[in-house]
Amino acid sequence: MKTHFIKFALLLFSFFVLGDLKAQNTFLSQHDYVPYYTNPAAVGQENFDRLLIHYRNTTLGSGFGLKNTMAGYSHPLYDSKHKRRFGAVSGSVSDFRSGTAGAFTNTQAMAGFNYNLPIARNHQIGVGMQGSYSFLRIDWTRLTTDAQWIMGNFDPSADLGENLDFTKNDQFNINVGMNWMWFDDAGRINGTFGVAMYDAVNSRNFIQDERTSGTQSYVLSGEVKVAKFDHLALRPMGRAVIQTNSNTYEAGLKLAYEPDMIHQPSVALSSYYRFDQAMVIAMQVYFQNLSLGISYDIPTGSKVGGQLGANNAIEFGASFHFGHMRAQRALGADKAPYVAPATLQHVKPSTIPSRKMKVQEQEQPPSIVDVNQERMEEDLRNEIENTKLRFALGKFDLTEDSDKKLQRIAEIMAKYPNTKILILGHTCTIGDEDINKFVGTERALAARDRLVEAGVPRGNIRIKGMSYTQPIATNDTDDGRAKNRRAQFIIIDQ
Q1: Is residue 162, in this structure, part of any structural domain at all?
Q2: Residue range 489-493: average pLDDT?
Q3: Measured between alpha carbons, how far is 267 from 292 in angstroms, rounded to an integer?
Q4: pLDDT value of residue 198
């Protein structure tokens, strides 16, 4: 009789446990670090391939717990013609176990795709879809029965005395989402807001083989940078998970250290409150090729329901980043293999086998400037040499104003086809010298390529990256640094 009671109790408990195992998006605390279960459209929003390994251990008391092990991979998709990342494909495999001996299990395989649509400068909308297949099981042979208690002692090798077997249910489902992201000029995320629906297909009841309505989960999530003090950024963040008879709301703050160059190490600390359940504290550390995350759920309320994240839980995550050179080739030197669609350079020039760089390293600026005033009018010469192209921090994108200036230079040079010019690319002092040398060279290359497109012979143009060695203003102020980030033109022969 006791065995049947335990079996019935565990059946009831399985409705909560396996329901939460299926709706995996509801309980991962590091939802910004592991977007697979928060919003399908938020996966793969980096200009590099990412391999993620994640583990969570939840303690429920009375011998019960929940362990989650997950491995995920995302691969960005590039449009080389338009020099942008337009989406990503991803996949993950996860194993969820609960019960006194892991009697409740859910093994899931998931594959997804998302597409990014630029809607304004530094803004994009992403849409994503995932297909998942779950293998849900209850292994009744792992339970303890009266027959295993012999003369007052427990013998786990003894026969159970019951004809116990497996209860299983395999399910396919679909998750969909939409995510809006906007970035600052350095390429860091200024804010994000997402809406997602998980388990869009009504799932089968685990015990009865029939469809059950109302099994969908709706997830709203977002964060926004509201203030920045030197290198510290403050970001309020929140998430809401809406389920039938079981809603979860979270709100908190993230404090992030953001260095000048996006390839440099950074760290983020966050704390948020899961209403009537837990206080979550988390830390993530980011390096160029690796990031690490850890979080802990501190119980603060009595609400459990179907939300197994309400009690003690600790999470660990490790993310490995690679494919930077592929991003470099697909996006061009003006895109960074990091976060935003157009960001700071992430790969040091010494790691990039650039044919253009090798050619330019052999070219030295002339020691003598030969100017024949009679062959080009003084005002036209001055117009060219007084022209300066401006750039955002760490970038080489040509603005609309720069395009107009380059078109004007092309028109003048068309009247004087023997004229040769030198383009110098300059930077401010933010970042190390190697990166700035590379950035300066790429700025000069961008100007040269646009002039060639406008009809100027390539052989009439020489370039050189000057890094921050020739400032025209102070580097102690934002305005001064903006003036130093420039490309300039010198006539060297007519």
Answers
A1: no
A2: 85
A3: 10
A4: 86
Please write the tens of the pLDDT for every residue from 448-461. Answer: 999 999 999 988 99
- Residues 290 and 363 occupy one common structural domain: no
**pLDDT score for 126:** 93
Do 269 and 297 lie in one domain? The reply is yes
Count of the separate structural domains present in the chain: 2
* Cα within 13 Å of Cα(258), Cβ side: 20
| Arithmetic mean of pLDDT, 19-28 | 49
Return the half-sphere exposure (C-beta side, CA atoms, 13 A cut-off) of residue 463: 28
Query: Is 115 inside a domain boundary?
Result: yes
Are 10 and 99 found together in one domain? yes
Q: Domain check: are 254 and 307 in the same one? A: yes
Q: Are 235 and 253 in contact (CB under 8 A)?
A: yes
Q: Are strands 248-257 and 278-286 parallel, antiparallel or unpaired?
A: unpaired
Contact call for residues 186 and 196 (beta carbons, < 8 A): no
Q: What is the CATH number of the domain that holds 223?
A: 2.40.160.40
118 and 260, same domain (yes or no) = yes
Say if strands 217-224 and 232-242 run parallel, antiparallel, or are unpaired.
Answer: antiparallel
Model confidence pLDDT, tens digit, residues 301-329? 655 444 444 457 899 999 998 886 676 66
Range of the domain at 25: 2-139+171-331
Between CA 455 and CA 326 the distance in angstroms is 30
Report the SS3 class of residue 233: strand
Supply the pTM of this predicted model.
Answer: 0.61
What is the C-alpha separation between 478 and 200, in angstroms, rounded? Answer: 49
Same domain, 176 and 204: yes
- pLDDT score at 46: 83
Q: Which residues pair with 224 in a beta bridge?
A: 191
State residue 142's pLDDT score. Answer: 59
Q: What is the CATH number of the domain that holds 418?
A: 3.30.1330.60
- Per-residue model confidence (pLDDT) at position 296: 92
pLDDT in tens, 26-78: 467 887 777 777 889 988 888 889 999 999 988 765 556 788 899 999 999 98
Residues 286 and 369 in one domain: no
Contact 104, 14 (CB under 8 A): yes
Closest CA to 195 of 226, 217, 173, 224: 217
